[in-house]
Write a structure and sequence with these properties.
Layout lengths: L6 E2 L14 E8 L2 E8 L3 H22 L6 H10 L5 E2 L4 H14 L9 H6 L14 H10 L6 E4 L2 E4 L12 H15 L5 E5 L2 E5 L7 E6 L6 E7 L4 E6 L4 E4 L2 E4 L13 E8 L5 H7 L1 H18 L4 E6 L4 E4 H4 L3 E2 L6 E4 L1
Parallel strand pairs: 16-18
Antiparallel strand pairs: 1-9, 2-3, 3-7, 4-6, 5-6, 7-8, 8-11, 9-10, 10-17, 11-14, 12-13, 14-15, 15-16
């Protein structure tokens, strides 16, 4: 099953300009998903030049952070596998590893990019997903080895792992990081109005003319939007769902979000959406913060997003019931009639 975007972009409905202004959009396929960069209020030639640079940056990051194709991260994983061997680290990877480690610790280990071997065992380190039933003993062995981000040691310009079971997969971090890179670049170029979408992780710059940018959150079980949201300047939104990267086996759905405590795909949740306020790393947090809540499930999602410092969040359980914080409920306009909604502080 080929990767699909996880949020419908409402901006497609609003590309007509206000007055003489016009929005310009370029698309690409990067990070295994559809990427869209939209600029408003710029001259066409400049908009296309800026968008092309953003997409070029994304392509470079894609190759740098790819978990299984040749690149920087793949070379790092070779070093980890030969622990305690050391190697020189690419300088740009140092803040990424440090930040991902901090967020993993903050999540209590539910966000754990070090479990790439488990992700590979389930067949999710591939562009196509085929039903697999991994050997339970192999799953248990990988869980017992307990690879974690704090096993990675950066000593000056050299790095190694204290645990050879570490295999980094930054699929739950990289798209958000790319959002922040794009937003910083565009603001640095004086852009006042833009929307960047990477497979449903979206960050807004300014407004779309005289109104906020508007996006729509995908219904996890229907080819239609579940709700719409006005995205304010600097805000980022992200959704993790069981309907993008998954396979069906004996009538059961297995998605790519692996619970590091059990080694099995998380169950009982269809989607989690988080809305992140403006600030440094908003894009990264929009990518990361939904994963711990998805894994924690209905019983623990609220505490999981609190740990990540997120107050605006929504979970849709396996029965299609909606659990949503009061703060986010005030922002969303639901389009699906008859939803059973549980609002929590």
């Amino acid at each position: 099953m080929r990767l699909k975007g996880l949020l419908i972009i409402g901006l497609v409905l609003f590309l007509a300009g206000c007055g003489r202004e016009q929005a310009y959009q370029q698309q690409s396929y990067v990070f295994g998903t559809l990427v869209e960069v939209t600029l408003y209020g710029e001259k066409e030639a400049r908009a296309k030049q800026l968008e092309a640079q953003v997409l070029a940056d994304f392509d470079q990051l894609h190759h740098t952070l790819h978990a299984w194709e040749p690149g920087t991260l793949a070379r790092m994983n070779e070093v980890f596998a030969n622990s305690p061997a050391k190697a020189a680290i690419t300088p740009g990877m140092i803040p990424i590893i440090q930040d991902a480690t901090r967020l993993s610790e903050q999540s209590g280990g539910l966000f754990n990019p070090a479990i790439g071997r488990l992700i590979q065992l389930w067949g999710f380190q591939s562009d196509e997903f085929k039903p697999v039933r991994p050997d339970p003993d192999k799953i248990a062995a990988l869980v017992k080895e307990n690879p974690k981000m704090t096993d990675i040691v950066i000593d000056g310009i050299r790095f190694y792992s204290k645990n050879p079971a570490v295999k980094l997969d930054l699929g739950g971090y990289g798209k958000g990081y790319a959002l922040d890179v794009a937003a910083d670049y565009l603001r640095g170029q004086g852009v006042k109005s833009a929307l960047v979408n990477i497979g449903g992780n979206i960050i807004a710059i300014g407004r779309h003319g005289d109104r906020p940018w508007q996006v729509a959150i995908q219904h996890p079980r229907k080819p239609a939007p579940l709700a719409t949201l006005e995205l304010r300047d600097g805000e980022a939104i992200g959704t993790s769902g069981d309907y993008q990267r998954y396979f069906m086996l004996d009538g059961k759905r297995y998605c790519h979000i692996i619970d590091p405590r059990t080694g099995y795909p998380a169950q009982g949740v269809e989607a989690v959406t988080v809305l992140i306020p403006p600030g440094k790393g908003a894009g990264v947090l929009s990518d990361v913060a939904s994963k711990p809540a998805f894994i924690a499930g209905v019983a623990g999602w609220r505490e999981a997003v609190k740990k990540m410092g997120v107050e605006e969040a929504m979970l849709i359980d396996g029965k299609g019931e909606v659990y949503i914080t009061t703060a986010l409920r005030k922002r969303l306009k639901f389009l699906e009639p008859g939803l059973r909604i549980h609002e929590v502080p």
